[in-house]
């Protein structure tokens, strides 16, 4: 995905309501607006969105993993 090679991974609830969020995450990674990111949305204990992607470092040598913390 994208010219920078970042890919979004994760899960999204089976509802169209979160598709725009997924699209924004993908665009931020593709455009370089974010080097890496993760986003989780829960409601009443149910995980509705769990997305991550990109890299952990500006040199783009370390992939962003599911439970990575930003620096």
Task: Report what the structure shows.
This protein is α+β, with helices and mostly antiparallel strands and 71 residues long. It has a domain at 8-54. It is 18% helix and 31% strand. It is globular and about 35 Å long. This is Serine hydrolase. InterPro entries: Beta-lactam/transpept-like.
Proportion in β-strands:
25-35%
Q: Sheet bearing the most strands, described?
A: 3 strands, antiparallel
Please tell me the overall pLDDT: 83
**Span between termini:** 24 Å
Class of secondary structure makeup = alpha+beta
Q: Give the beta-strand count.
A: 3
Give the low-confidence spans: 1-5
Q: Helix share of residues? A: 10-25%
What is the string of SSEs from the N terminus onward? EHEE
As a whole number of angstroms, the C-alpha radius of gyration is 12 Å
Described by the principal axes of the CA atoms, the overall outline is: globular
Task: Count the DSSP helices.
Answer: 1
Strand order of the largest sheet: 1-3-2
């Amino acid at each position: 995905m994208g010219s920078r090679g970042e890919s979004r991974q994760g899960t999204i609830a089976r509802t169209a309501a979160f598709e725009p969020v997924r699209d924004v995450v993908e665009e931020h990674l593709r455009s370089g607006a974010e080097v890496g990111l993760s986003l989780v949305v829960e409601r009443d204990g149910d995980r509705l969105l769990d997305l991550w992607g990109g890299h952990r470092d500006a040199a783009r040598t370390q992939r962003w993993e599911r439970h990575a913390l930003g620096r």
